[in-house]
Design a protein that fits this description.
Elements: H1 22-34, H2 38-55, H3 58-75, H4 78-92, H5 99-114, H6 118-135, H7 138-154, H8 158-172, H9 178-199, H10 205-229, H11 232-248, H12 252-269, H13 272-288, H14 292-307, H15 316-332, H16 336-373, H17 377-387, H18 398-414, E1 419-426, H19 429-436, H20 438-454, E2 461-466, E3 469-475, H21 479-494, E4 509-515, H22 521-537, E5 542-545
Parallel strand pairs: 4-5
Antiparallel strand pairs: 1-3, 1-4, 2-3
Helix pairs in contact: 1-2, 1-3, 2-3, 3-4, 3-5, 4-5, 5-6, 5-7, 6-7, 7-8, 7-9, 8-9, 8-18, 9-10, 9-11, 10-11, 11-12, 11-13, 12-13, 13-14, 13-15, 14-15, 15-16, 19-20
Length: 546
């Protein structure tokens, strides 16, 4: 009999384990994973691992290895997770590429980078990407790209992280599942929070404000998707991010219930690392309200708890944050000795983290340069040109978009410059193919591409987005000016002599415009797509603004 009803009261661990078949134990472990029953789950997974090893059931042992890794990750035992994960990988690699191995590698990349083991984290992330490519699964590829982006965020490069995550979102566009949306939006929110901390003490505070506003937009959007997905860790994490952004904005009364909700869930389930982070944030909230004594007591209790853990087992970013908050609390209470101690500890750890991040970034880019120099430059350039170009129209393809749009968005955000995108749909192209043949349909696409070239600037980015859609990126262009250009394109298409290609042929365009912000590829294109749908709903052959 499997547990039903309230997961907190139904037993998952059988009273007698010796006679229970491996298959049933695995089902119970999977159920523990779904219900976030961490203690039961890790005990079951360890038992299955040992029994499957003794009885020679490789596939069952491999699955148990992945489950052992999952439970330790959620419990905050990152060194233990990496240890059992490596042992599971040694079993899984001879079995061939699989989605399960991709997911395990992504978890390991996150755990390693949290601990500052960036080289190991990058290696796992790249292996996950390679496996996703071998499997030909675009969803796995997108999630693996998110994992690689998360590595760069922990390495202190939120801009590279955002580029990779935006590329991942572009792969899925509007077809993302709730899981993929939660992964992308949560990671992008984390990246924006990290970028804010780097920008807030710089020369452009208004840029930091915009970054924080974007983080709020991402946190707000992620929340309903996590609730729909129903994963307890995801719900706690999105609430925690949402609360943190509101806390940084000084919106304390809005932040507090989200942070308390997330902390309470972490305490119930046992999400140790997230619980520590939330308790630190709640102490920061008390400091923001002037409740220095309460904050100091909370931070002292948290420090005492983390001191019982090996220093290398507590992520460096959390240790820095704890010392920074403790310094502020001690200073507010005029506790000179403790304030100096925590200030020195915070600065020492920050320097250590900065050196580690710089070394990791340097090693990564040196490795990339060595790999590029090992390839013939001429053939590399030719290959790259072909990979970025749509063979039918000569316009850029999605890979070109993934390479060029994120830097344009980053420049627009950092320099406060306008940017507009237009998504262009060739009305009824499928009917044209059916009525006049695919050759005529291809000619239509080629002539549309030429009309786009004639009516845009050399600095504009022209792309074939899908079978019957084009995308134009207008840098340094406000929405009104983009609308004028699109009207000119639409008019030129309307008067083009299409009948010369085939008698009775007529081509029109439905176009949707969206302007930054937001400064994320997926969000911007999704808004343009909504505008295209509105143009079609209004009768086609028109331009609509998001």
């Amino acid at each position: 009999m499997f547990p039903t009803g309230d997961p907190s009261s139904d037993p998952i661990l059988p009273e007698a384990l010796d006679g229970v078949p491996l298959g049933e134990l695995l089902e119970r472990a999977r159920l523990a994973q779904q219900q976030a029953r961490l203690a039961d789950g890790v005990a079951l997974a360890d038992l299955i691992w040992d029994r499957a090893d003794a009885e020679g059931f490789i596939n069952e042992q491999a699955e148990a290895g992945k489950l052992r890794s999952f439970f330790r990750l959620r419990m905050g035992d990152l060194p233990g997770m990496l240890d059992v994960g490596e042992r599971a990988l040694r079993l899984m690699r001879p079995l061939g590429a699989s989605p399960a191995m991709c997911e395990l590698l992504r978890w390991m990349s996150l755990a390693a980078c949290e601990l500052g083991a960036y080289e190991q984290g990058l290696a796992c992330a790249h292996e996950a990407l390679k496996l996703a490519g071998e499997l030909g699964d675009v969803r796995l590829h997108a999630v693996a790209l998110n994992g690689l982006g998360a590595c760069f965020e922990r390495m202190g490069d939120p801009w590279q992280a955002e580029r990779l995550m935006s590329e991942a979102a572009g792969l899925l566009r509007t077809n993302a599942t709730p899981f993929e949306r939660v992964v992308t939006l949560t990671n992008l929110c984390t990246v924006s929070i990290g970028a804010y901390h780097l920008q807030r003490d710089g020369a452009a505070p208004e840029q930091a404000t915009r970054t924080l506003e974007r983080a709020l937009e991402l946190a707000r959007e992620a929340r309903p998707h996590s609730l729909q997905l129903g994963d307890r860790y995801g719900i706690a994490l999105t609430a925690s991010n949402f609360g943190e952004v509101l806390l940084l904005m000084g919106r304390l009364d809005e932040a507090e219930p989200l942070l308390i909700e997330s902390r309470d869930e972490c305490e119930r389930v046992g999400f140790r690392l997230l619980d520590w982070r939330l308790r630190c944030m709640l102490a920061e909230l008390q400091l923001a309200r002037g409740q220095s004594t309460a904050a100091w007591e909370q931070l002292q209790a948290l420090s005492a708890e983390t001191e019982h853990v090996m220093p290398g087992d507590v992520p460096l970013f959390l240790r820095v944050r704890l010392h920074q908050a403790s310094y502020r609390a001690a200073k507010a209470l005029a506790l000179l000795g403790p304030s100096l101690f925590h200030l020195e500890q915070a600065r020492t750890l920050e320097r250590r983290r900065a050196v580690s991040q710089l070394m990791a970034q340097s090693q990564y880019f040196v490795s990339r340069m060595e790999a590029e120099f090992a390839t013939d430059p001429a053939s590399l350039a030719a290959r790259d040109a072909a990979e970025f170009k749509d063979p039918l129209t000569g316009l850029g393809n999605r890979r070109c978009l993934e390479a060029r749009l994120p830097p344009l968005l980053r420049t627009a955000e950092q320099e406060d410059r306008p940017l507009t995108v237009a998504l262009i749909d060739a009305d009824g192209l499928r009917n044209i193919n059916e009525r006049h043949g695919s050759e005529i349909g291809d000619r239509v696409l080629q002539e549309l591409a030429e009309l786009l070239r004639e009516n845009t600037r050399g600095s504009d980015l022209l792309l074939r987005w899908s079978g019957e859609e084009f995308l134009v990126v207008f840098p340094d262009t406000i929405a009104d000016r983009g609308f004028e250009v699109c009207e000119r394109i639409r008019a030129s298409v309307s008067v083009h002599p299409w009948h010369e290609l085939a008698p009775g042929l007529d081509v029109t365009l439905s176009m949707g415009l969206a302007s930054a912000p937001p400064y994320a590829t997926d969000l911007l294109i999704a808004r343009a797509n909504d505008a295209v749908e509105r143009a079609k709903h209004l009768g086609r052959n028109r331009v609509a603004l998001a």
